Amino acid sequence: MSGDDLPVFHAVSPGAAAIAHLFILVLIVCGIILAIVVGMVGGGLIFFRHKPGSADPPPHFGNRRLEITWTVGPILIVVWLFALTIRGMGNSDPAANQPPDLIVIAHQWWWEVRYPQSGVVTANEIHIPVGKKLLVHLESADVIHDFWVPELARKIDMVPGHPNHVWLEADKPGTYRGECAEFCGAEHARMRFLVIAESPAQFAAWQDEEKNPAAVPATDSARQGLKVFTEMTCVNCHSIRGVSTAASAAPDLTHLAGRETIAADELSNTQTNLLRWLKNPQAVKPGCFMPTLKLTGAQMNNLVNYLEALK
Ligand code: CUA
What we know:
This protein is of the alpha+beta class and 311 residues long. The protein has three domains: 7-49 and 61-92, Helix Hairpins (Orthogonal Bundle); 102-211, Immunoglobulin-like; 220-308, Cupredoxins -  blue copper proteins (Immunoglobulin-like), CATH 2.60.40.420. Helix content is 37%, strand content 19%. It contains eight helices and twelve strands. A hairpin with a 4-residue loop joins strand 2 (110-115) and strand 3. Helix 1 (14-47) packs antiparallel against helix 2 (64-92), helix 4 packs across helix 8 and helix 6 (271-279) crosses helix 8. The two termini are 22 Å apart. Bound molecules: dinuclear copper ion. Dinuclear copper ion (CUA) is lined by residues 106, 109, 145, 180, 182-184, 188, 191.
């Protein structure tokens, strides 16, 4: 994971750099003003202290030059910062009039990710080719969420019934953490995702793999697991291409095993963690809409064996 410490300082795209530079500049200007004010107050406290036996100093009234300075100076600074802000906003959020490369739909509390050109559907992990500016169309399936990858792009609200867009671009390969930046209910804090920026060749290979329908189970246990999936309610919310694509209330699981994490970046994607999640989702994400399944231990293991083979 890159730049987990203060990611706003680690801009990896021109849009994020515009925001980071503006932020750093405003921080420096405000720091200088703070230093001047603290310096003058501190200097006054030290050098103009009342000394025992001395008389009160004579009062001063009015100083035109000083008053003009402290009126015009701050106005110029504010106008200058305003102009820089307008420029930063333009650079971080250019206008868009083209079909989107990506569609991201926020749900309580996960992210549906669709690639309209290739038909790929995935969740919580957005693969992008490095160095390419992608237009992301943003929607919400329920309440207001906010899409934010601090290293790559500006924040942008996802409002039900009011689609938005944002440009997503990474200049360097890497895995960048994204999160929901608008309080959206119990699991808001655990509504995270990853943006995985890779070389155009790696991205194309990933996309080709994702286009395939789900792997056919190869072991007895996995075959039993598929039965559990289709017969024990999972299929009512989750889609697996090649099995059933009727549902979109929960993440598409067609290539679940190819993901780094499960439960919206909450757990690393291992057999143990998947079992833990399936056995008691509320212990992992309290308040989440994943039901606690009434499955036997054997059914649980078969389901995990099936899902973890969906590369
Ligand atoms: Cu979605 Cu906060």
